[in-house]
Amino acid sequence: MVFPIVTQEVAAYSVPMRPVPARFTSLALLAAALVSGWHPSLRAAEPTAFDLVKEGNRYVGEQAKDKVVQIRSDKSIGGLQPAIWYVVYYDPTATFKSVEVKFCSGKMLDVKRPLRMVEPVTGGDKQLPKEKLKIDSDKAIKIATGEPILEKLTLKATQLKLERWEDQPVWKVRIWAAKLQNPNQHAELGEVILSAEDGKVMKNDLKINRVD
Predict the structure, then answer these.
(1) Is the pLDDT of residue 205 over 50?
(2) Distance in Å from the first CA to the final CA of the chain
(3) Alpha carbon 205 to chain centroid distance?
(4) Residue 170 CB coordination number (10 Å)
(5) Structure-model confidence comparison of residues 173 and 14, the more confident one
(6) Residue range 142-155: average pLDDT?
(7) Neighbours of 63 (CB within 10 A)
(8) H or E stretch covering 54
(9) CA nearest to 67, candidates 95, 86, 91
(10) DSSP state string for 20-51
(11) Is the pLDDT of residue 1 over 60?
(12) What is the C-alpha separation between 180 and 189, in angstroms, rounded?
């Protein structure tokens, strides 16, 4: 007996894909951003002046560590937080008793022993009292730019200096704002001097009419 050959077609099919929950997609994107570092919200903030004092200790001798004489910045670009900073330490082994470390966005650029010929006469070569350095640069900017007279202006840049003034450590914060008629141009308004110990504004030398 011959049995008939029975053929059977097997229909090809695919398993339907389930949609990926949105929360998993977001987590994946965040993970990728953490790895690549491209996400704007993940950019590291500029280090503060006191952060740079600690970093600068790596580039000076033991005799100068933490013995801050002056901290100053260049004018900020693209925001109110400066990127270029100079930390000056008291160094008894140097000719002019100081060593200076220059930083850009937290990275050391240069170490030198600057010519500070006037400071020994004015007292600017003395170490600032560490116990009175309580207001960091970010807080100094916030206090200075928070002066009521600046409320309606578009602030563009700052430049800071921490030094001795009337025998106490102060921040001198110089401020720029956009001009009213041409916002692409900046006007230097003057500076605010505030205590590095408690943040109290000691002098306001701002002239907002310069934005006209």
Answers:
(1) yes
(2) 111
(3) 24
(4) 24
(5) 173
(6) 97
(7) 13
(8) helix 49-56
(9) 91
(10) PPHHHHHHHHHHHHHHH---GGGPPPPPPHHH
(11) no
(12) 13
